[in-house]
Design goal:
The chain has nine helices and eight strands. The chain is of the alpha/beta class and about 220 residues long. This is Pyridoxal phosphate homeostasis protein.
């Protein structure tokens, strides 16, 4: 069994109902296909061009992959993302971006599944909206014909992930009461360093990269 397959097995054994998004940013297509061969189907990417390149590279051999975009998305890059059939955008944080994605989603594809990113730590370096902003954004998404809101996403604060995760849980309760949704919002929280805590607190998705693929290497 390869290191990737073994890591996937060990992580999934403790996930309960949570779904694993294998974060493959900066990793080669070969690593994705190795994880795919071990049964992994959800993959996360942070950069638009890298995601587009990888979807094209694997489409003939792994066309049932569900891609999750988990990086900051600029509106001028929305067209490329909106055209990917089996994609979830976890980082919608503005009306402008939501409207752009809806406008650009091809009519022959299912509505684009999205999550609202909430900045639960208040850190200026992190993207995401406030809870009040998320309520307003959820109302906007609710009337956009080419989007479907499926959940909320956050990044845990250093050394206080539990507070961030609880804030996301509380935000879900507030948003679901404020806007009558037909489906329960799912929570995407937890990464390699804190996914086990996120699972214990009720995460529906965890985003794990280095614990599966090893430490990332970035071009110089």
């Amino acid at each position: 069994m390869s290191n990737i397959a073994g890591a996937l097995r060990d992580i999934k054994a403790g996930l309960g109902h949570a779904k694993l998004v294998a974060v493959s940013k900066t990793k080669p297509v070969e690593a994705i296909l190795e994880a795919y061969a071990a049964g992994q189907r959800l993959f996360g990417e942070n950069y638009v061009q890298e995601l587009v390149k990888k979807t094209r590279a694997v489409q003939n051999v792994a066309n049932d992959i569900e891609w999750h975009f988990i990086g900051h998305l600029q509106t001028n890059k929305a067209r490329d993302i909106a055209s990917i059939p089996n994609c979830v955008v976890q980082t919608v944080d503005s009306d402008k971006l939501a409207r752009r994605l809806s406008d650009l989603r091809p009519g022959d594809l299912d509505p684009l599944r999205v999550m609202i990113q909430i900045n639960t730590s208040g850190e200026l370096t992190k993207s995401g909206c406030t809870v009040d902003g998320a309520i307003e954004l959820a109302q906007v998404i609710g009337v956009l014909p080419r989007l479907r809101l499926i959940g909320l996403m956050t990044i845990g604060a250093p050394n206080s992930s539990a507070d961030s995760f609880q804030a996301l849980i509380d935000a879900r309760n507030v948003i679901e009461k404020a806007i009558k949704l037909e489906e329960k919002l799912e929570l995407s929280m937890g990464m390699s360093s804190d996914y086990q805590l996120a699972v214990r607190m009720g995460a529906d998705y965890v985003r794990v990269g280095s614990a599966i693929f090893g430490e990332r290497t970035y071009p110089q």
